[in-house]
Amino acid sequence: MSEVYSASVTAPVNIATLKYWGKRDTKLNLPTNSSISVTLDQAHLRTLTTVSTGPQYLASKLYLNGHEETLNKPRLVAVLMTLKELRKEVEAKDPTLPKFSDWNLLIVSENNFPTAAGLASSAAGLAAFVTAIAKLYQLPQSFSEISKIARQGSGSACRSLFGGFVAWEMGELADGSDSKAVEVAPKSHWPDIKAAILVVSADKKDTSSTSGMQITVNTSDLFQYRIKEVVPKRFVDMKDAILKKDFNAFADMTIKDSNSFHAVCLDSTPPIFYMNDTSKSIIKLVNLINDQSIANGEGLIAAYTYDAGPNAVIYYEAKNEVKILSTLYKYFGELPGWEALDDALLAGVKSVEGPIIGEDAFAASDFDVSRLILTGIGEGPQDTDVSLIDEKGEPKFLTA
Ligand SMILES: Nc1ncnc2c1ncn2[C@@H]1O[C@H](COP(=O)(O)OP(=O)(O)OP(=O)(O)O)[C@@H](O)[C@H]1O
Ligand SMILES: C[C@@](O)(CCOP(=O)(O)OP(=O)(O)O)CC(=O)O
């Protein structure tokens, strides 16, 4: 019988509240600025990855969502090489260990949400990829150290190595050894953070993050102001707001940073547009929700943010859930996604009466939303017994 050694993990999506946009080194994936994100709950968005090795595998292979994908991409090659080198160090210290570093890998992965649709699939995907192999290889490195390897695969992936609130410290060194993810605060610090994702379009985007950010680096003047003046201060202030659980300050900076990121995209040549008209209508709706709450003396209660696509992510606190979701329900009540709420909460959301916020401000056609994902802050990568590879070492596809 052939030898099969395998390991499985799940890894989360993270959505930045202070955006990474720009590389100072495209080979090592080193950013032009530090960033901050919230890790989302894996109950709703996660990658599951199983990795196996054994002398019988004639080549390394990757299957994503049931289809073979090439491993022959420079960034994946770099990631695999680094992991193998670290495994070699482990084997050198204990010569009784099997020589995994000489063998090929079978990697089987599934995302439970649309891939490459601006829902940060590359972040969860690369985090799971690296974490599963590190587990198989029994690497002793800390998660921050492992995050540097994930960073080489996709920058934002390094932040998916932790749960809760996560910072990616840009670092200064040319070799990238100080450009890593660190935990700002665990989920338990502020577990009441919720996220509503309005999926505006699940299609593949026109301009990838990787190419879009370099167009901005090379052509935008506003970008220089963003990375030199805006982000360094915001990085300190946002961590402070998180540690103080100051939602008003956190929301204000999250909104401003999303606006700033999309402004530098627009200031690029040629300009890059990630938000569409529906995205803009959702911004207007969130502003109306906040205006009402400011009028009531409560400050900001909802924070929108947009990545490199038109989907909206709205962060809010559990104490304002009924208020915010009852407004969203009036506009988006017919869409799939509400079933994620427990019955009592959904009944509460449905029962709120009175005028709809922004009732006169929108036409039905303003919102071309296909689905909602109602989720919240979550934990980092998790070990799992669910395997996508059978005992013979063959892939098994759960959802294909
Ligand atoms: N589970 C996975 N395992 C390995 N690679 C993955 C996985 N999921 C996604 N990827 C890689 O990430 C790519 C998608 O990344 P892309 O940046 O285009 O989209 P996105 O991550 O959904 O959007 P964004 O990063 O802008 O929010 C996929 O084509 C694939 O190469
Ligand atoms: C807008 C963003 O989501 C950009 C993410 O870019 P990627 O991490 O996908 O880029 P690469 O490093 O080239 O893989 C902002 C963020 O997540 O911080």
TrEMBL record:
Q: Which segments constitute the Diphosphomevalonate decarboxylase-like N-terminal domain? A: 11-180
Q: Member of which family?
A: Belongs to the diphosphomevalonate decarboxylase family.
Record-level Gene Ontology MF annotations: ATP binding; diphosphomevalonate decarboxylase activity
Keywords linked to the UniProt accession:
ATP-binding, Lipid biosynthesis, Lipid metabolism, Lyase, Nucleotide-binding, Steroid biosynthesis, Steroid metabolism, Sterol biosynthesis, Sterol metabolism
The protein here is known as: Diphosphomevalonate decarboxylase
What's the Enzyme Commission number for this chain? 4.1.1.33
One family from Pfam that matches here is MVD-like_N
Reactions performed catalytically:
(R)-5-diphosphomevalonate + ATP = isopentenyl diphosphate + ADP + phosphate + CO2
What do the Gene Ontology cellular component annotations say?
A: cytosol
A GO biological process of this protein is:
sterol biosynthetic process
Its UniProt pathway annotation is:
Isoprenoid biosynthesis; isopentenyl diphosphate biosynthesis via mevalonate pathway; isopentenyl diphosphate from (R)-mevalonate: step 3/3
Domain Mvd1 C-terminal, by residue range, is: 196-382
